Amino acid sequence: MAEEWTLFYWAAKSAGRAEFVRLLFEEAGVKYKEDNEDTLGKFFQGKIGSFQLSQTPVICRYLGKEFGLFPDKFEDEWHAEQFNLTLHDYIAEGRNSFHGINLIASYFTQEEETKPYIERFVKDRIPRYLKHFEQVLSLNNNGQGFVFGNKLTYVDLGLLHVLRATEAQFPDTWKEADYIPNLKAFQGKNRD
Ligand SMILES: N[C@@H](CCC(=O)N[C@@H](CS)C(=O)NCC(=O)O)C(=O)O
């Protein structure tokens, strides 16, 4: 029997960073299992046989290439990687704003104190990142297609996840954002 991937993540029910990787497995139709117990001391990891990999953006690039969800052109390959890292910077900043006082303590131990960090993220950082994502998407096929080239790649799935996370976490901000028409259409059309 072919070896199966294992995705290690601290939370089974939360989208979080694991969702980037789940979407790749789902899109490629590749079976995987999740291990949400054995994560002590591991940030995040994917494993097949004795091959293990951590760092979510690296896992995404690796699986994208492995599953053919990868740009065809050399320049697109590197622009996609640039975009991949920006998506993950955005997620990291968002996550850190909910842990403004203590990065590794639960949000619920710092709910009050972390409010200014979240407010700053909403006011300054979300628009800055979303405008950038809109600009990059709009450079290809007038923003009507994929982020790079003419096929779905790992960064389209990454973008989809961060947009869904933004809408879920900050519904009012998402609704009021009238400066990202192409992103909204992109997210809508990929809803299922
Ligand atoms: N750059 C890493 C960041 C991993 C990370 O920060 N994970 C979060 C949970 S999603 C965490 O709590 N890490 C533990 C820590 O920072 O001590 C990645 O993208 O995989």
Structure characteristics:
2 domains; Glutathione-S-Trfase_C_sf; Glutaredoxin; 4-stranded mixed sheet; binds glutathione; Glutathione S-transferase Yfyf (Class Pi), Chain A, domain 2; Thioredoxin-like_sf; 192 residues; alpha+beta
Describe this structure in words.
The chain has 192 residues and is α+β, with helices and mostly antiparallel strands. The chain folds into two domains: 5-66, Glutaredoxin (3-Layer(aba) Sandwich), CATH 3.40.30.10; 74-189, Glutathione S-transferase Yfyf (Class Pi), Chain A, domain 2 (Up-down Bundle), CATH 1.20.1050. The chain is built from seven helices and four strands. Strand 1, helix 1 (18-28) and strand 2 (32-35) form a beta-alpha-beta unit. Helix 1 (18-28) crosses helix 5 (154-169). The longest helix has 25 residues, at 115-139. Glutathione binds next to helix 2. Residues 73-192 form the GST C-terminal domain. InterPro entries: Glutathione-S-Trfase_C-like, Glutathione-S-Trfase_C_sf, Glutathione_S-Trfase_N, GST_C, GST_superfamily, Thioredoxin-like_sf.
Q: What is the gyration radius calculated from CA atoms? A: 17 Å
Bound molecules: glutathione
Characterize the largest beta sheet: strand count, sense, and whether it forms a barrel.
Answer: 4 strands, mixed
Low-confidence stretches: none
Can you list the strand order of the major beta sheet?
2-1-3-4
| Total DSSP helices | 7
CATH first level of the largest domain: which class? Answer: Mainly Alpha
The best one-word shape is globular
Helix/strand order: EHEEEHHHHHH
Terminal CA distance reads: 31 Å
Number of DSSP strand runs: 4
- Which structural class is indicated by helix and strand composition? alpha+beta
Mean pLDDT: 92
CATH level-3 fold name of the largest domain: Glutathione S-transferase Yfyf (Class Pi), Chain A, domain 2
**CATH architecture title of the largest domain:** Up-down Bundle
What is the count of distinct domains?
A: 2
